[in-house]
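QA checklist item 7 of 12: single-chain prediction sanity check.
[x] sequence parsed
[x] length recorded as 404
[x] structure emitted
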Amino acid sequence: MLGGIIIILLSTLAAFSMISALKRRFEFIEVSLLQRLFFFHLALAFTYYLYATFNPSDSVAYYFKISDNFRGEKWSDYYGTSTIFVEFIGYPFIKYLNFSYEAIMALYAFFGFVGFLYVYIFIKEHIRFKHTLFGVDLITIILFLPNLHFWSSSLGKGSVIFMGIGIFFYGISNIPKRWISILVASLIIYHIRPHIMLVMLASAAIGFVFTTKGLSWVVRLFFVIGVSVAFYFIYSDVLSMVGIDEGEFLTQGFDLTHRATELTKATSGIDITSYSLPFQVFTFLYRPLFFDAPGLLGLIVSFENVFYLLITLRLLTIGGINYLITSNFLVKTALFSFLTVTIALAQISGNLGLAIRQKSQVMILFLFVILSFLDKQKLLAYQQAMWKHVRKARLTKLQKETTP
């Protein structure tokens, strides 16, 4: 426990130092907001710790696999992708620095907060206006959604991949100046979930192809080459992870039915194999909704899902659909990443608990898309108001000049 307290104090110092340093680079950063966000994230990390104390948790398994030399006695024995990489990151802290379970949990909670920092910068760099829901700032609501924090505040894949996704989108916001951030984030995401990296690379490439706004041909060329090379190297890894032979994939594609069936066996499972794809996606994104909530956590998430439904309705208009077609590279990349991951995971998340956890990794991308649409609407309204003001001023001037 003492080790956990020490790491919390050190991570608090590190977080506040990062916020101060970022404030010097980005004037729009609200220091007090991010400081409150850190303590909120810390509170959800402690909540997860209590949850893991009384319920089965992967975080406990990760810790004891490392401390008990489950995969071997050398650090290199833990190198790999997916679950193994979580243990690879934790190995030097547990084996060399003697981190306790509480200490390593606090460290991974800090990783999750770093993800929120970069997500915040990514959103604020591209959202010009303030948007509200019931009088509350939408960006603030999004940052303080509890489910996003709960699943990114513990020893596990969630905290690390959320950090990677946050840094990745921060990087592609300014590719020439942030290519190192893109490289680091890509390595993190690939090692945690190769299939997510595959999706994000493909989405970025599609975003380039269908967007002409603000991107030079030189940046396009080098980025597409980099994506193609990375795609080539991780393609076979992704297929092997889902248990599909390359030749079989080319003829049959992904068959996820067996995986969905396996996941319905849990107590919070729902047999979604008979659902239509649209209903599978709806179940993944917006359930539970009180009536089918699996326990107290499900009830809390139900409030969050109501928020998702309300804000999604703002996008489901003719103007919203048109915006998705004409939007810029970043919006298209976020949208394609979100849609592809959602459609894939919706087919296998027969367990509502699993859906609650997995969607937290990509839901932030959809929220960014919606914020961008609302921003575009407000910008158009502002431009129209300004144009009316200019026309009125010109008309008034003309009337004065023609009045005898």
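[x] summary fact logged: The CA atoms of residues 147 and 212 lie 36 Å apart.
[ ] second reviewer sign-off
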